[in-house]
Design a protein that fits this description.
Chain lengths: ~260, ~325, ~300
């Protein structure tokens, strides 16, 4: 069964077509790459999937359910977590608190419990802390749990965003340029972590990434977009040598629309 | 066990307050007492407002309106409740305490309701648009009271008694409510709700992507702070002989903002310090008469230019923080 | 019918004054995204500057002698008031707003509230709390047309406002300063990189907006007969509402918003209840911000994620 299905999704900003009819499916427990030149519409697609933007046309299906036009918080609660291209950690909060914020799915205590600080509230807090610690461990951030998130280097902030997203216990994780600003060693570590999330936690991962070595090594399928439209889709080995991909990336003119690499 | 300990702590605090209040009331000039009373009311206002303006980062400049709703409700309910209560338990301190607290609770509830009515439509807006809408609502509330003939209209409300509203607002009750409000706000702030409120302030888009029900939580924070303003209004009403719509002008809302900014937006400790500071500073400047407000405005501008983060920033004064400080360890933030 | 026409005449002249003040709000917001609360006090100071200029020119003795105040002196009074307010507006920008220009958005907002309070209280101190009768810079002549009372003052208010508006439009669209102002309002940093002296442009914006407010102050004095140091509080707030209604940052919008607010206020006072005259203005403000925050003539902007 497919976790995510986009059907002819369109999004226009005041006459500018950012996404023009993209169709794609992401299989369960896949690591799926979404690539394309700057301005190709990748982040816009993420924003449409997560409800930040309402699509102007087409449908977004998650686990078979049509979620087009849902509000972001509802999409997140349904099981789609994400990170942001322009890092959006809660800067003044500690690393641990950042992760705990996303704990709405395991939240049992209500406001009155919190005011009374009763047993239910206490169990909640312990559970939040335990789970946050676990996730920080996975993302290699446990040592800085009590630091203000804004003081971390960029690479760590990107990993913190992943840990925070995991706190939602999602089925689907959308990573927007997770390797940006990382050196090759950090990037290699990130690859290992992404595989861990899929292999051990059973997540489906979709990532937008410009670092081709990361994309080619970690993704099983890659979908290429340019000017808001699908160029091709296939396994890394095929996409890598697709003439229109080379053209889109190297800026060459391609005389004829070459055969699509879709199976 | 925990509830037993808490009960004991609460009893000790109450007894301490009662004792302290007796000593102060016996030994202090009326003038100094009044400053202490006003300081306590300010602290309630500031700690409440800080929850929405500081912690949640949704700026209201219309909270004088909620204070007015609380003040009028409390004054009116108090007037109509007192004879019955006095009849039931006999006139005296106990009857007054019952009437006052029942009236305060009703003031908090109506202020909270007003908070829902104002907050639900307004909190879709952000930044200075939200600020302006709350200002507008605050003014509308004042205009309504200004024209409400049964509540005295522009001349204000002072009850049936020619001597005015009963002087129920004692040091003990003011500070008992200070303790209650601070405890509630602190417990909310240091919980999942509080973390989510801070997340909304820091980055609303990210907070939503983490499944935070942002709209609902903003309304919750707004309503809690309106309720606190209502309590403060009720205490204020029974400190004065009467209340007038002009007691709750825009300037009052600005006073509250100054309190939380002086202390440091987002810090409960800062709000407490700011509230006390305001009462004391205005009192100290009383002799300057008409220069007082000029100085006050000048001070506000200078604070914004020189130290906009206030005295405390968003830090909290806690026992843990003091211990770390004493050890010379890392600063809490 | 004639009552309705009368309300419309009164509404249009009052609305013109709101429009003049609204321009200052709208221009400053367009450039700095700052609600310049002190603008209402700049308006008040403009009215007083006109008052003192006219008094100094001997308007009282002329009035006692039954002489009319000559037109060239009246224009002079207007110019003096506009110049004083412009200077005040630019001083406020330089001393209070520039130091906090890059601070988080609420810091300048609170600073502006502080400046507004400061000027109100200084006004009370310097000018005294009592209202003063505004000198008849323009001798009032009354005409009656089919039951509607029209005065030369009301006509003048409308004409002066119209002239200043046209002048402002020419300035914004035909001069280099105007072009710089528009550039800065689109993107301050980009304008700076293109070699525009942004500090000077911002100062010019404050100067022009403040001068217009001063003109509004004199017209207000003529229309309402008395002035006082707190006259700016409510009038300024309503002018700000007018700016928001028209679409903040939008110059023609300020004119439209001002006239609409003036009209609605007069009609509510005439047909609903004078007690709720001010409440209606705030209701309009709230409704606009909630349902159409871009105003009548504004454009929608979307946040980038």
């Amino acid at each position: 069964m497919n976790v995510l299905e986009l059907g002819r999704v369109e999004k226009t900003f005041g006459g500018l077509r950012a996404v023009g009819g993209v169709t794609l499916s992401v299989a369960d427990k896949a690591i799926f790459g979404l690539i394309g030149p700057n301005g190709a519409g990748k982040t816009t697609l993420f924003n449409v999937i997560t409800g930040v933007y309402r699509p102007d046309g087409g449908t977004v299906r998650f686990l078979g359910q049509d979620i087009s036009g849902w509000a972001p918080a509802r999409v997140a609660a349904a099981g789609i977590a994400r990170t942001f291209q322009n890092i959006r950690v809660f800067r003044s909060m500690t690393v641990e608190e950042n992760v705990m914020v996303a704990g709405h799915r395991i939240h049992r205590a209500n406001l009155l419990d919190a005011v009374l600080r009763n047993g239910r509230w206490e169990r909640d807090e312990q559970e939040f802390r335990r789970r946050a610690t676990e996730l920080l461990e996975i993302m290699n951030l446990r040592g800085v749990a009590r630091e203000p998130a804004g003081s971390l280097p960029y690479g760590s902030q990107r990993r913190l965003e992943i840990a925070r997203a995991l706190m939602l216990s999602p089925r689907l994780l959308l990573l927007d340029e997770p390797a940006a600003g990382m050196n090759s060693q950090e990037a290699a570590e990130l690859e290992r972590q992404i595989r861990f999330l899929r292999d051990e936690l059973g997540l489906t991962v979709v990532l937008v990434e410009h670092n081709m070595s990361v994309v080619m090594s970690v993704c099983e399928r890659i979908h290429v977009v340019d000017h808001g439209e699908t160029v091709c889709e296939g396994p890394p080995a095929e996409v890598k040598v697709h003439p229109r991909v080379l053209a889109a990336y190297l800026g060459e003119e391609v005389p004829e629309p070459a055969a699509e690499a879709t199976p | 066990m925990r509830w037993l300990v808490r009960g004991a702590v609460a009893a000790a605090v109450l007894a301490g307050l009662l004792g302290l209040a007796r000593v102060i009331e016996g030994g202090l000039m009326e003038y100094a007492q009044r400053v202490l009373l006003l300081a306590g009311i300010n602290v309630i206002l500031a700690v409440g407002l800080n929850l929405i303006n500081g912690t949640t980062g949704q700026f209201s400049i219309g909270h004088a309106g909620f204070m007015a709703v609380g003040a009028y409700t409390c004054a009116w309910v108090g007037q109509h409740l007192a004879p019955g209560v006095a009849g039931a338990v006999g006139a005296g301190a106990i009857a007054d305490a019952i009437s006052l607290n029942a009236a305060l609770v009703s003031g908090a509830v109506t202020a909270a309701l007003a908070g829902v009515i104002v907050g639900v439509p307004s909190l879709r807006l952000k930044g200075d648009y939200l600020a302006i809408v709350t200002l507008g609502f605050g003014e509308i509330i004042r205009i309504v009271f200004n024209n409400w003939k049964a509540l005295g209209g522009a001349t204000g409300y002072s009850g049936e008694d020619p001597a005015g509203l009963p002087a129920w607002t004692t040091l003990f009750w003011v500070y008992a409510w200070v303790v209650v409000i601070i405890t509630v706000v602190r417990n909310v702030t240091f919980s999942q709700t509080g973390r989510s409120l801070i997340a909304i302030r820091e980055d609303e888009v990210a907070a939503e992507a983490m499944a935070t029900p942002t709209t609902r939580l903003k309304v919750v924070a707004f309503v809690l702070s309106a309720a606190a303003a209502g309590v403060a209004g009720g205490l204020f009403a029974h400190l004065q002989a009467g209340i007038r719509p002009e007691d709750f002008r825009l300037e009052k809302s600005i006073d509250m903002i100054v309190m939380i900014i002086v202390g440091g937006l987002g810090s409960i400790t800062g709000a407490v310090v700011g509230g006390v500071f305001m009462a004391v500073a205005l009192e100290l400047m009383r002799d300057l008469e008409e220069y007082r407000l000029v100085l006050y405005a000048l001070l506000l501008i200078l604070i914004m230019i020189l130290r906009p983060e206030g005295l405390f920033g968003s830090r909290e004064l806690s026992f843990g923080w003091l211990r770390r400080k004493a050890r010379g360890g890392e600063p809490a933030s | 019918m004639s009552q309705l026409l009368q309300q419309i005449v009164n509404g249009l002249s009052l609305g013109s004054i709101y429009a003049l003040i609204a321009l200052g709000y709208t221009m400053v917001y367009g450039i700095l995204k700052l609600i310049n609360f002190a603008h209402s006090e700049v308006f008040m100071v403009g009215a007083y500057a006109g008052y003192f200029a006219a008094t100094w020119l001997g308007i009282e003795s002329m009035e006692a002698a039954g002489q009319a105040f000559p037109l060239y002196l009246a224009v002079g009074v207007l110019l003096v008031a506009m110049a004083s307010s412009a200077a005040l507006g630019m001083a406020i920008e330089r001393l209070a707003y520039r130091p906090v220009r890059n601070a988080p958005r609420l810091t300048p907002l609170i600073t502006a509230i502080g400046v507004s309070l400061l000027l109100q209280n200084l006004g009370l101190l310097v000018f005294g709390p009592n209202p003063r009768r505004y000198p008849p810079v323009l001798k009032e002549v009354t005409y009656e047309l089919g039951g509607v009372v029209l005065t030369n003052v009301k006509v003048t208010i409308f004409v002066v406002t119209l002239l200043l508006m046209v002048g402002l439009q020419l300035l914004v669209h035909r001069t280099w300063t105007g072009k710089a102002m528009r550039a800065v309002s689109v993107n301050l940093d980009a304008a700076k990189l293109m070699g525009i002296d942004t500090n000077r442009t911002i100062a010019a914006t404050f100067g022009i907006g403040s001068a217009l407010a001063a003109a509004g102050g004199i017209l207000f004095g003529l229309d309402q007969i008395t002035i006082n140091p707190l006259m700016g509080v409510l009038t300024g707030l309503k002018a700000f509402v007018a700016a928001v209604l028209g679409g903040i940052g939008n110059v023609p919008g300020a004119m439209l918003g001002g006239l609409l607010i003036g009209l609605s206020e007069q009609l509510v006072a005439g047909y609903v209840s004078p007690d709720y005259r001010d409440a209606i203005t705030f209701l309009v403000l709230i409704a606009i911000l909630i349902f159409r925050p871009e105003g009548l003539l504004g454009v929608v902007r979307q946040e980038k994620v």
